[in-house]
Write a structure and sequence with these properties.
Order of helices and strands: EHHHHEEEEEEEEEHHEHHHEEEHEE
Number of domains: 2
Structural class: alpha+beta
Family: In the C-terminal section; belongs to the transposase 35 family.
Pfam families: Cas12f1-like_TNB, HTH_OrfB_IS605, OrfB_IS605
Keywords: DNA recombination, DNA-binding, Endonuclease, Hydrolase, Metal-binding, Nuclease, Transposition, Zinc
Strand content: 15-25%
Protein name: RNA-guided endonuclease InsQ/TnpB family protein
Strand order of the largest sheet: 2-6-7-1-5-4-3
Distance between the termini: 37 Å
Number of helices: 10
GO molecular function: endonuclease activity
Radius of gyration: 27 Å
Largest sheet: 7 strands, antiparallel
Length: about 425
C-alpha cells in the first residue's frame, strides 16, 4: 500500500529563492526538451513517397530523440549552462521522466483506446514542483529526521509534522510543491501489506447512494447529505477580486499580489470541498461493509447546462476519495451502470419516465411513491448486489432468503422496508 502525506515546510528567504530558481531552470529544460521531441516528430513522420503540399521541414533527418538520449545530454547541459549544476541530478531526470510520460500518453492509446492531449510548453510559474526520488537512504537527495528536512543543494528547513508518519512504512520519494500559501513537501511511503476486501460471507450491512444537485447524496435507506455549493457561495467575492486584477497593470507588484489572493481563494474552495468529501466518505465507510455507487461519465455531464453545479459538487473526486478510504478499511465499493436508475421503479421494475424537475417517483403499476433519489439509490443497490451475487433480506441483513417485493409492514420494532 502506498500513502502520501503532505506537510508544510518553512524555508528561509535564501532557500526559497533557490527553490524558485530551481523551478525556473527545470521549466526551461522542459520546454527545450519538448521542442526537441516535437521537432523530431515533424521531421520524421512524413512518408518517403508523399509529402504535404503546404509545409514540410527541409534538412537532414535528425537522430532519434527519446528519454535516454535527452538524459545522456544532461552532462552537456551542465557544461553549457553551469547553473544547472546547482540542481540535484535525480530531480532533473525525474523532470525528463514526467515529459516522457506525457509524450507517451499523447502518442500511444491506453487499454480503452483513449489518448491524452499534446504536452504544452510551460509559461513562467507554471512548473510548481520538483522531486527527490529517494529519501532517507545513503545516496538520497532528501533526508527527514526529527522534523527537519535536509535537501541537497538547498539546505535544512523545518517541517510542520501535523500528524506522525505511520509505523512500518518505508519512505520512497519527496516532492517539493509550491502552493499559493507557501511551500509543502509530499512524502510518499510504501508498506508491503496489501489491504484485502471483506469476504462476501462476512458482509452484513450494505447501502446504495445516489449523488445529485438537490442533495449531495441520498442513500437507499432515505438518508440525505446536504450539498455544500462551496464555489457558488464564493462566486461573487471571487468575481470582485478578478475584476480588481483586470484593472491592475499586468506584471506589476500589485497585479502579482492580486493573483496570489485569487489563488488563495481557489485553494480555500478546494480544501473545504476536499474536507467535506473525506468526512462524508469516512462516515459511510464506518457504517457499511458494501457501498454501491454509480459509474458516472462526469466529462459528459459537465457539457450540459448544469456544468458549473456538477463541477462544484465534484462527484468524480468524491467517488475517488470514497474508493481510497474504503480500500484502507477493507470495505467493498461496487460501481454500477447509471442507465435507468432514476426512471425504473425499485419495487416492480416498471419504467416511469420523468424529467429532472419531477422530484417524486410515482409508479403507475404498483403505486410506490417516494423521493426519486431514494428510488434511484435502491436501484443502484439492487444492481450492485446482483453483480456480486448477494441477496438482501427483508430485515436489512444478508441471508439465504429469497428476494421479496418492496412493501411496508409493521412489527414490534417499527416500520420495516425491504429493498426488493
Amino acid at each position: 500500500m502506498i500513502l502520501t502525506y503532505c506537510y508544510r515546510i518553512k524555508p528561509n528567504a535564501k532557500q526559497e529563492a533557490t527553490m524558485l530558481h530551481t523551478l525556473e531552470l527545470l521549466r526551461r529544460h522542459w520546454n527545450y526538451c519538448l521542442e526537441q521531441r516535437l521537432d523530431w516528430l515533424r521531421r520524421t513522420r512524413c512518408q518517403i513517397d508523399r509529402c504535404s503540399i503546404i509545409y514540410e521541414p527541409i534538412g537532414e533527418i535528425p537522430a532519434t530523440v527519446n528519454y535516454y538520449t535527452q538524459q545522456s545530454d544532461l552532462k552537456q547541459t551542465k557544461v553549457l549552462f553551469p547553473e544547472y549544476k546547482n540542481i540535484w541530478s535525480e530531480s532533473q531526470q525525474v523532470n525528463l521522466q514526467r515529459l516522457n510520460k506525457a509524450i507517451e500518453r499523447w502518442l500511444f492509446p491506453d487499454k480503452s483506446g483513449k489518448r491524452g492531449g499534446r504536452p504544452k510548453f510551460k509559461k513562467v510559474d507554471e512548473l510548481r514542483s520538483f522531486v527527490y526520488p529517494r529519501i532517507n537512504c545513503p545516496k538520497a537527495g532528501a533526508h527527514l529526521n526529527n522534523g527537519v528536512l535536509k535537501l541537497s543543494k538547498i539546505g535544512e528547513m523545518l517541517v510542520i509534522l501535523h500528524r506522525p508518519l505511520p509505523d512500518g512504512f518505508t519512505l520512497k520519494t519527496c516532492t517539493i510543491v509550491r502552493k499559493a500559501d507557501g511551500w509543502y513537501c509530499c512524502i510518499s511511503m510504501e508498506d508491503e501489506t496489501v489491504p484485502e476486501h471483506k469476504p462476501l460471507d462476512e458482509v452484513k450491512t450494505v447501502i446504495g447512494i445516489d449523488v445529485g444537485l438537490k442533495e449531495f447524496l441520498t442513500t437507499s435507506e432515505g438518508e440525505t447529505v446536504p450539498i455544500q455549493q462551496i464555489y457558488r457561495k464564493t462566486q461573487s467575492h471571487l468575481a470582485r477580486q478578478q475584476r480588481k486584477l483586470a484593472r491592475s497593470k499586468k506584471g506589476s507588484n500589485r497585479s502579482n499580489k492580486q493573483k496570489n489572493k485569487i489563488a488563495r481563494i481557489h485553494q480555500r474552495i478546494g480544501r473545504i470541498r476536499e474536507n467535506f468529501h473525506y468526512n462524508t466518505a469516512h462516515n459511510l465507510v464506518k457504517r457499511y461493509d458494501l457501498i454501491a455507487v454509480e459509474d458516472l461519465n462526469i466529462k459528459g455531464l459537465a457539457r450540459t447546462r448544469l456544468s458549473k453545479s456538477i463541477l462544484d459538487a465534484a462527484w468524480g473526486r468524491f467517488i475517488t476519495i470514497l474508493d481510497a478510504v474504503a480500500v484502507k478499511c477493507g470495505v467493498r465499493i461496487v460501481k454500477v451502470s447509471p442507465h435507468g436508475t432514476s426512471q425504473n421503479c425499485s419495487s416492480c421494475g416498471a419504467k416511469v419516465p420523468k424529467t429532472l424537475s419531477i422530484r417524486l417517483h410515482e409508479c403507475h403499476k404498483c403505486g410506490l411513491a417516494m423521493d426519486r433519489d431514494e428510488n434511484a439509490a435502491r436501484n443502484i443497490l439492487e444492481r450492485a448486489l446482483n453483480e456480486v451475487g448477494l441477496i438482501l433480506s427483508a430485515h436489512r441483513g444478508l441471508g439465504d432468503t429469497q428476494p421479496v417485493k418492496c412493501e411496508a409492514f409493521s412489527g414490534g420494532d417499527g416500520v420495516q422496508l425491504s429493498l426488493f
